[in-house]
Design brief:
- The protein is mainly alpha-helical and 275 residues long.
- The chain has a domain of 190 residues: f41 fragment of flagellin, N-terminal domain.
- Helices cover 72% and strands 4% of the residues.
- Strand 3 and strand 4 form a beta hairpin.
Length: 275
């Protein structure tokens, strides 16, 4: 007696159809998300690599932002020091004028002193009020301040900005009401101007040699990492379109084979019923 237990051709065709559908769905998902890795099962090793790269990319992006903020801080301090320098130059001009006692009266010398005192008070005001946000910069408290300039622990830079008031610059007690006092004041003011210039030079060196150089290096690393991550995670559209098209053709073929297999089985059953 004849019997039909299993339609093997149909089972094979169904299996091929399901496999093709699964591969086509994967290709479609990669095309729609733009990612090769949409779950851990897609590429376990690639997922680990991309996760580590993501962390480093995020760290580099934050470090670049940190450096940009640090640069703004340094520029703020330098701008205030530039103002202090300008005020010192004005005080120096008054001292030079007072040193020319042959043409000065007591009243004019007193006026020069009053103007100098007002300029020195302005220097003190700048030194005490210059801030970046809430961080004081020129009052002597900005010492060994740390900047996180890299993606990892230990990638830091530190900066100290000296106090820049008239007392620290040793010009707070100048007396330009006499020739001798004015001459001594010129020496003290020149030293103060040199001190301010040196502080500005240190800021410039920190900006260019540390912050800007590190930012350029970080940006290069970031670009390289993003490119490397893209290779691992981003969809190759040309490849996935080809995969989708190929699997679509396979699916159509498998559907045709399945239909034929089922039709063949039905034909055999019909023959058996007719016996």
């Amino acid at each position: 007696m004849l019997s039909v237990n299993t339609n093997m051709n149909s089972l094979v065709a169904q299996n091929n159809l399901q496999s093709s559908q699964s591969r086509m769905n994967n290709a479609l998902q990669r095309l729609s998300t733009g990612l090769q890795i949409n779950s851990a099962a897609d590429n376990p090793a690639g997922l680990v690599t991309s996760s580590l790269e993501n962390a480093q990319i995020s760290g580099l992006q934050q470090s670049i932002q940190n450096i940009q903020t640090g640069s703004a801080l340094v520029q703020t301090a330098d701008s205030s020091l530039s103002n202090i320098n300008d005020l010192l130059v004005q005080v120096r001009n008054l001292a030079a004028n007072s040193a020319n006692t042959a043409t000065q009266s007591t009243a004019s010398l007193a006026a020069n002193q009053a103007n100098a005192d007002a300029l020195l008070a302005s220097i003190d005001n700048i030194a005490s009020t210059t801030k970046f946000g809430t961080v004081a910069l020129l009052d002597g408290t900005f010492s060994a301040a740390q900047f996180q300039t890299g993606a990892f622990s230990g990638q830091t830079a530190s900066l100290t900005i000296a106090k820049s008031d008239s007392t620290t610059l040793a010009v707070n007690a100048i007396d330009i009401t006499t020739a001798a006092g004015a001459t001594a004041a010129l020496t003290a003011i020149d030293a103060a101007i040199s001190t301010v210039a040196s502080a500005r030079g240190d800021l410039g060196a920190f900006m260019a040699g540390t912050l800007t150089a590190t930012q350029n290096n970080n940006q290069a690393q970031l670009t390289n990492l993003q490119q490397a991550k893209s290779i691992v995670t981003d969809t190759n559209y040309q490849t996935e379109i080809a995969n989708y098209t190929s699997e679509n053709i396979r699916q159509q073929a498998a559907s045709t084979v399945l239909g034929m297999a089922n039709q063949s089985n039905q034909s055999i059953l019909s023959l058996l019923r007719g016996q």
